[in-house]
Amino acid sequence: MAFLAVGAIWLGSGGCSSKPVSPDVAVPGPYATYFVDDGKNVLHRYEPATGVFDSLTEVPFSYPAGFDISPDGKTLYTSGLDSVVAIDIETLSRKWTMYHEGSTGLAASPDGRFLALQGSDLDILELISLTVVYHDTDACGSGSFSGDGSKFYAIAQGGVPPHNDDQHIYCANLDSNTVTRTWISADVGLSQMIPSADGTELYLYGTTDVYQSRFSVYNVDSAAIVYSEYLEPGMGQMDLTADGKYVFYTNPGSVLAGGPDPPFTISVYETATRQRIKEISTVGVFGADTVETNGVIYDIVCTPDSRWLTGISPASRFLSIDIRTLEVIHWERQPQKWFYGLRCQARP
């Protein structure tokens, strides 16, 4: 079910839309992926193509509620309790600071125009003017923009009768200043959602039971789930390649929640055939300790050339996968670290 709803406010915007980069265009590299060391002002930078790992110390943020990388890979956006900060990745100097309370997640648009500030409310910031140009009172999370930056998608909760506080997919069309809310299923607590490049399909990851999650694909035109796969113990993450060919998703479980042992795999869904075509095994990758939960890959991200994937384990492990061959090509352990959050620039 989907309908237009009022309550969102478009506050005006300057600038012009950038044309999305074609996935067929040759692009430079290598691209860096970034993740955080929990409890420390350290940002880790890892190039999956080369295996080069570096730690950026004295990063001017602490316990960020959210962070993202600009589409050109030059700026780190972070949010805390009462502010949003832009940091030059090379010099680690602050570009600007904006007072804003309650942002638990950030999302930069691929065209570089906007930054979504998600939390108990939704604000979309125009970066060229540093002004909020869109506001809604819906609580939003796991948000991302369409390829041209004209639409913003998120998992939301809001009091819209007859659903009241039921979870739903929120889509703000920034060109027409309209909102579409779509209720897909009441039996899944969604944790992540990624739209396809053309917005015709939504890739969903959510929890169905204590030790069970589900990866599914929702077709917008038919208003139906066209692929569904249950995962045990679940509690993982997913990412879509920039060329739209694959969705990768994990099935790690949680050392805190207990439950069944994870399968030590990263699954590969092919969008053209709507099939899971492979499970990439990580058994033995990190040595003998793979029998333990801390060797399991949790979060993943793909580089903007659709060439490489980085995966991290909370307990100091990370690896890279060659997307052409769907094989693990590099892995590493960093002692006494606790990794979380994984980001990469959206455009070449």
Describe the biggest sheet? 5 strands, antiparallel
Question: In the CATH scheme, what's the topology name of the domain at 34-181?
Answer: Methylamine Dehydrogenase, Chain H
Instruction: Give the CA-based shape.
Output: globular
Uncertain regions spanning at least 5 consecutive residues:
1-7, 12-27
Order of helices and strands: EEEEEEEEEEEEEEEEEEEEEEEEEEEEEE
Q: What distance separates the N and C termini?
A: 36 Å
Specify the structural class.
mainly beta
Our Rg estimate from Cα atoms comes to 19 Å
Helix coverage percent: under 10%
**Strand order across the largest sheet:** 1-17-16-15-14
Mean pLDDT: 85
Write up this protein.
The protein has 348 residues and is mainly β. The chain has no helices and 30 strands. A 5-stranded antiparallel β-sheet has the order 1-17-16-15-14, with no helix packed on it. A 5-stranded antiparallel β-sheet has the order 2-13-12-11-10, with no helix packed on it. Strand 27 (308-313) and strand 28 form a beta hairpin. It is globular.
SSE blueprint and pairings:
Elements lengths: L1 E4 L3 E2 L22 E5 L5 E5 L4 E5 L9 E4 L5 E5 L3 E6 L5 E6 L3 E6 L5 E6 L2 E5 L4 E6 L2 E7 L5 E7 L9 E7 L4 E5 L6 E7 L5 E9 L2 E8 L4 E8 L6 E3 L5 E5 L14 E6 L4 E7 L17 E4 L5 E6 L3 E6 L4 E7 L5 E6 L4
Summarize the structure.
It is built from no helices and 30 strands.
For the structure shown, list the relevant keywords.
348 residues, mainly beta, Methylamine Dehydrogenase, Chain H, 5-stranded antiparallel sheet, disordered N terminus
